[in-house]
Specification:
The complex is a heterodimer of chains A (582) and B (190). With 582 residues, chain A is α/β, with parallel strands linked by helices. Chain A has 23 helices and 23 strands. In chain A, strands 3-2-4-5-7-6 form a 6-stranded parallel sheet, with helices on both faces. A 6-stranded parallel sheet of chain A has the order 17-16-18-19-22-21, with helices on both faces. With 190 residues, chain B is α+β, with helices and mostly antiparallel strands. Chain B folds into 2 domains: 78 residues, ACT domain (Alpha-Beta Plaits), CATH 3.30.70.260; 76 residues, ACT-like. Chain A, domain 2 (Alpha-Beta Plaits, 2-Layer Sandwich). Chain B has 4 helices and 12 strands, in the order βαββαββαββαβββββ. In chain B, the strands form 3 sheets. In chain B, strands 5, 6, 7, 8 and 9 form a 5-stranded antiparallel sheet that branches. A 4-stranded antiparallel sheet of chain B has the order 2-3-1-4, with helices on one face. In chain B, a hairpin with a 5-residue loop joins strand 2 and strand 3. The longest helix of chain B has 16 residues. Chain B is elongated, with a radius of gyration of 22 Å. The chains are: A alpha/beta (582), B alpha+beta (190). Chains A and B meet through strand 6, helix 8, strand 9 and strand 10 of A and helix 1, helix 2, strand 10 and strand 12 of B. Strand 9 of chain A pairs antiparallel with strand 10 of chain B, so a sheet runs across the interface.
């Protein structure tokens, strides 16, 4: 560490920027304001890259897209008051999906705090439950320690968002960047190596099981454990599902990969979950969208639960064998024990496992995902299949929230981790386009799709300017059915088709909208144009907006209704009542 | 069912808010809460009585441990621990002749039975101080209520464990070293 920097007198803003440089931060997504003027003035001469968004909410989503697609910690920046409060959705979203992120917010001058000053908000109080931890900086001398602690907390253990609130006078104060050699957080204990005895016992339970089932999720991606997971599945030769947050952990092409389980998961995935006698739960949290009615969830199975967060184990479902630890390390050791004991223990249960694999295949053949194609209208499933064809399992797919998200999860293949980017736990609409922005900034050479419904797309319209301004060649696909689709589906199925406030009329013309921003846009509504329009979009060197008019009333199946059991899925369309529209 | 949680918490700004915030957000009803400095002035001990189903008790401790400012979280409900609460009770007993004089004497006798001290006395009545477990204090209040108008302030329970549990803290981690270098026994230091 250069002593020149340590001895140099600098402003708080420069100290902050130096901290970011020391943390290897390459990009900040942000929006300036009154109290962050000193910071932005320091940025004027500083080489760090800043992407100016058009709404702070999208700074948080973009930082997430950056983090989710790379594993690095995303950074966003907003001013005090409304700037900071605009970050809240993105923070809660990162918290729910365990995304490493550091949010820097300006705050009013220290002596004005608590006086209802202009653009003052109790950011520290408001974001307490929206973050893994947060800080309010009281003295410039504390800033380097706080900043480095913030990054440490964000990316270790179960990753998550951390907010650092910095009053204006701290930015303006003069001081030094004192190098931080050690982080001391006595109350922050992260257990990485799982208990050896438990891991051995797990290997034993796995070989003794007749219908073992691997239930793996987001934790595999956060823990960079995809290789170890695939190895485990290969050693045992058992079926595996990836949750919405875990898609890509196992390559879609893997012979044992079934699909996604849960409310809109595949028939086979849910039947397998229901009938298994051993659930090997890796980096998952038994979310209600996966389990359905708890009393009917995996009723015949013992559960091995591996997670780095001890509070998730036995939170929803009792773990017969709990293992707290980093999933990558635990799997490495588990694979060793599995190999050691395979010759001795595997043959006895191999016939059962073979029968189980056969049963899974039967279920997959019985009810595969519906992939309807029509001759005169574009089915939403067809759109996803065409995107899948162009992607070939390799494109980065960022979606918004709703029916399109479910179809994209079901029908598009992900051959590697960190290609599939969506808001799972919180389900924040408006996530799609800004997260695609962040993913494109992080991966300049890669093909990035932003897939939204017409609802979600309109929630992040301002970022069209950011995309054009930064020359981001994002392929923006709007799956347009003219409705708030998922809500409409529930109204149809559970509210007697009374369509209350779900009609999204007055959608802008894509070619004119894009042209207004200076790039290319097009609307298609006929299946004969689908493939060529997508190819045209991908071939375009810059951004492209493709508005795809799809079948208006199409529902996502299978569906486990709320409160339903996962083995009682609705597989297809019941006869709807006539629609009433308000 | 009441769960008695004892927490060792850093005296950092917002630490108290974090603890109560998590309890409220997770739907655990707080019945009482005490907090004060320990021998180490940078640390405070909190005793919280939470109303939670038995099977959820371990989850409450885990949620507390998740907080970075919480160094230790213990469930004292069933473990060997001593729990005490302080009660200040003001009872109206007008000084005078005859019946009221008897009442005042009777109150003082009750106080003696309960081991309560008289900390204030005037013509309007007394203020009594008593410590004990919650049941004893509840009984005392009932008894005093029968003598006249009362006003009650309780401190909430504080609890100390009878077992000496070694405090397991995360040691410092060096910045710039990789994650594997910064461990001891498979636990990340920091």
């Amino acid at each position: 560490m250069s002593t020149a920097i340590a001895n140099k007198l600098m402003s708080g803003s420069e100290v902050l920027l130096e901290c970011l440089v020391q943390e290897g931060v390459e990009v900040i997504f942000g929006y300036p304001g009154g109290v962050t003027l000193p910071l932005y003035d320091a940025m004027y001469d500083h080489p760090i890259r800043h992407i100016l968004v058009r709404h702070e909410a999208n700074a948080a989503f973009a930082a997430q897209g950056y983090a989710r697609s790379t594993g690095k910690t995303g950074v966003c920046c907003a001013t005090s008051g409304p700037g900071a409060t605009n970050l809240v959705t993105g923070l809660v979203d990162a918290m729910m999906d365990s995304i490493p992120m550091v949010a820097l917010t300006g705050q009013v001058t220290s002596k004005l705090i608590g006086t209802d000053a202009f653009q003052e908000a109790d950011t520290f109080g408001i974001t307490r439950s929206a973050t893994k931890h947060n800080f309010l900086v009281k003295k410039l001398e504390d800033l380097p320690q706080i900043l480095h602690e913030a990054f440490y907390i964000a990316k270790t253990g179960r990753p998550g968002p951390v907010l650092v609130d910095i009053p204006k006078d701290i930015f303006q104060a003069q001081g030094h960047y004192t190098p931080v050699h050690s982080i001391h957080l006595p109350g922050y204990k992260v257990v990485l190596d799982g208990h050896n005895g438990q891991i051995r016992r797990a290997a034993q339970m796995i070989w003794e099981a007749e219908r073992p089932y691997v239930y793996a999720g987001g934790g595999i991606l956060h823990g960079d454990a995809s290789d170890e997971l695939v190895e485990m599945v290969d050693i045992v030769d058992c079926p595996v599902v990836n949750t919405l947050m875990g898609l890509g952990a196992v390559p879609a092409s893997h012979p044992r990969f079934i699909s996604m389980p849960g409310m809109h998961g595949s028939y086979a995935a849910n039947m397998g979950m229901y009938n298994a006698d051993l659930l090997i739960a890796l980096g998952v949290r038994f979310d209600d969208r996966v389990t359905g009615r708890l009393a009917a969830f995996a009723p015949f199975a013992k559960v091995i639960h591996v997670d780095v967060d001890p509070s998730e184990i036995s939170k929803i479902r009792h773990a017969d064998l709990p293992i707290v630890g980093d999933v990558k390390r635990v799997l490495k050791r588990l694979n060793v024990y599995l190999r050691e004991t395979k010759d001795e223990m595997a043959p006895k249960t191999e016939p059962s496992r073979a029968a189980w694999r056969g049963q899974i295949k039967d279920w997959m053949d019985e009810h595969p995902y519906d992939r309807p194609v029509s001759v005169d209208e574009i089915k939403p499933q067809h759109l996803m299949c065409e995107i899948d064809r162009i992607s070939g399992g390799n494109a980065i797919i960022c979606t918004d929230v709703g029916q399109h998200q479910m179809w994209a999860a079901q029908l598009i293949r992900y051959n590697k981790p960190r290609l599939w980017i969506n808001s799972g736990g919180l389900g924040s609409m408006g996530f799609g386009m800004p997260s695609a922005m962040g993913a494109q900034v992080a991966n300049p050479g890669k093909l990035v799709f932003s897939i939204s419904g017409d609802g979600g797309f309109q929630m992040s319209l301002p970022e069209l300017a950011t995309i054009v301004s930064n020359g981001l060649p994002v392929k923006i696909i709007v799956m347009n059915n003219g409705y708030l689709g998922m809500v409409r589906q529930w109204q149809e199925l559970f509210y007697n088709n009374r369509l209350s406030q779900v009609t999204l009329d007055a959608f802008p013309k894509a070619d004119l909208l894009a042209a207004a921003y200076g790039f290319k846009g097009r609307t298609i509504d006929h299946p004969r144009d689908l493939r060529s329009a997508l190819e045209e979009a991908v071939a375009e060197p810059g951004p492209y907006l493709l508005d795809v008019r799809v079948t208006q009333f199409e529902n996502v199946y299978p569906m486990v209704p709320a409160g339903g059991a996962i083995n009682e899925m609705v597989l297809g369309q019941p006869s709807p009542a006539p629609a009433g529209v308000r | 069912m009441a769960e008695i949680i004892s927490l060792l918490v850093e005296n950092k700004p917002g630490a108290l808010m974090r603890v109560t915030g998590v309890l409220v957000a997770r739907g655990y009803n707080i019945e009482s809460l005490t907090v004060a400095r320990t021998l180490d002035p940078t640390l405070s001990r909190m005793t919280i009585v939470v109303d939670v189903e038995d099977r959820l008790r371990p989850q409450v401790i885990k949620q507390m441990n998740k907080l970075i400012n919480v160094l230790q979280a213990q469930d004292h409900t069933d473990s060997p621990a001593v729990s005490r609460e302080l009660l200040l009770l003001r009872v109206r007993a007008i000084a005078g002749e005859g019946q009221t004089k008897d009442a005042r004497t009777a109150i003082l006798k009750e106080a003696e039975i309960f081991g309560a001290r008289v900390v204030a006395s005037n013509t309007e009545g007394f203020v009594l101080e008593v410590t004990g477990d919650s049941e004893k204090l509840d009984e005392f209040i009932d008894v005093m209520r029968s003598y006249g108008e009362i006003e009650v302030t309780r401190s909430g329970m504080c609890s100390v464990s009878l077992e000496s549990k070694k405090l397991k803290l995360a040691p410092p981690v060096n910045r710039g070293a990789t994650q594997t270098e910064e461990e001891e026994n498979g636990v990340l230091n920091g």
